[in-house]
Design a protein that fits this description.
The protein is an alpha/beta fold. Helix content is about 40%, strand content about 15%. β2, α2 and β3 form a beta-alpha-beta unit. α10 crosses α11, α10 packs across α12 and α11 (about 265-275) packs across α12. It is globular, with a radius of gyration of 23 Å. Bound molecules: S-adenosylmethionine.
C-alpha cells in the first residue's frame, strides 16, 4: 500500500469557507481521490464519517490524521443541529462515507437538505461512485439510466419494485450484496425477461470483473455458483420493443397487484399506462380478476 501524497510543511492551512463539503472517496482503488478532496480533508474544521475506523484508515493512506466525528443512521437526528450550529458559527464540515460518494445509498441527504433549508452553503467534491463506474464498464446504454439503489430484501417486494420500472426506457442500476445477488437476478429474470444485464464486481480493485449475459443466464450462473466475493452492482439494459409487449400473464400479475391497492378503474388506468394496452381491455380483465365479471 503506497501513500498518494505526503503532507507538505508549506501546505496552506487557512480556514475553508463555512459550508458542508460533500466529499467523495475511493470505492476500492486508493488512487481515485481528488486533489480537492485531500485539501478539504486536511483543512475542514470537522470531518463527519460513517465509521471512524474506516475513515481513519483511509486518511492514513494519504498521510492525514484528523479528529473524526461519526455521522450515521443511528445518530444523525441528534447530530444534525450540532453540525448546522458549527457552520452557522463559521466552521467548515466535510462529510465522507465509507466509500464512494456520500448520499448515494449512504447517509447525508437529510443533512444537505437541512443545511440548504437554513441557507447554509452545501458544496460537492465529486469523485468515485460505484453506480457510475458500473455504467462506464457495463457496455449498456448510458444515455438514460435509472439508479435504483438497494431494492427490497424480500422477493415479493423486490419483484413489485422491478415491475414498477419495467416500462422505463433506460438502463437500470442496482446495488446488491453478494449474498442476495442470485435472488435479485432470479426476480429480474422473472419480471424483466430477455434483458441484457451485467454483474460488475470489485470495481477499480485487483479482481475487477464485468460478467455480461441475458438476465436469465446470469440468474442461472449465480444460482449455481453461490455468492461471489466482494462488492457488486447489477446493470440491466433498457427494454426492447419486444420486451415491452406484455404477455397476458404479466398484465394479470400487474392488475392483481394494483387491485390490492385500489379500485378496478385505478388499476386499469395504472396498468394501461405501464403496458400500453387499451384501458377498456384492462378494465374488463380487472373486473374478471376481482370476480365482478357477470357475463
Ligand atoms: N456511496 C457509494 C457509492 O457512491 O457508490 C455506495 C455505498 S453503498 C452502501 C455500497 C454498495 O455500493 C455495495 O453494496 C455495492 O453494491 C456498491 N459498491 C461499492 N463499491 C463497489 C465496488 N468497488 N465494486 C462494485 N460495487 C461496489
Amino acid at each position: 500500500m503506497t501513500r498518494c501524497t505526503e503532507p507538505s510543511a508549506e501546505a496552506p492551512r487557512e480556514p475553508l469557507a463555512p459550508a458542508l463539503y460533500i466529499t467523495a472517496t475511493p470505492i476500492g482503488n486508493r488512487g481515485d481521490i481528488t486533489l480537492r478532496a485531500l485539501e478539504v480533508l486536511a483543512r475542514a474544521d470537522h470531518l463527519l464519517c460513517e465509521d471512524t475506523r474506516v475513515t481513519r484508515k483511509l486518511l492514513g493512506l494519504y498521510g492525514l490524521s484528523r479528529p473524526l466525528t461519526a455521522y450515521h443512521d443511528h445518530n444523525a437526528e441528534s447530530m444534525r443541529p450540532k453540525v448546522l450550529a458549527w457552520i452557522v458559527a463559521g466552521e467548515s464540515v466535510a462529510l465522507v462515507s465509507d466509500a464512494g460518494t456520500p448520499l448515494i445509498s449512504d447517509p447525508g441527504f437529510k443533512l444537505a437538505r437541512a443545511c440548504r433549508a437554513a441557507g447554509l452553503a452545501v458544496t460537492a467534491l465529486p469523485g468515485a461512485s460505484a453506480a457510475l463506474a458500473a455504467l462506464a464498464v457495463a457496455g449498456l446504454p448510458t444515455d438514460r439510466f435509472l439508479f435504483l439503489g438497494f431494492l427490497a430484501p424480500k422477493s415479493a417486494a423486490r419483484r413489485a419494485e422491478l415491475a414498477e420500472v419495467a416500462a422505463v426506457r433506460a438502463s437500470l442500476v442496482v446495488y446488491e450484496s453478494p449474498r442476495r445477488l442470485a435472488g435479485l437476478l432470479a426476480d429480474a429474470a422473472a419480471v424483466l425477461p430477455g434483458r441484457d444485464a451485467v454483474v460488475c464486481r470489485e470495481l477499480t480493485k485487483l479482481f475487477e470483473e464485468a460478467v455480461a449475459a441475458p438476465v436469465e443466464d446470469l440468474a442461472a450462473r449465480y444460482a449455481e455458483a453461490g455468492p461471489p466475493k466482494g462488492e457488486v452492482v447489477v446493470v440491466i439494459g433498457p427494454p426492447s420493443e419486444r420486451n415491452l409487449a406484455w404477455s397476458d400473464e404479466q398484465v394479470d400479475e400487474a392488475l392483481t397487484r394494483a387491485l390490492a391497492a385500489g379500485s378496478v378503474k385505478d388499476a386499469a388506468a395504472e396498468v394501461a399506462a405501464a403496458s400500453g394496452r387499451p384501458r377498456q381491455e384492462l378494465y374488463r380483465r380487472a373486473m374478471r380478476l376481482r370476480g365482478g365479471d357477470r357475463r
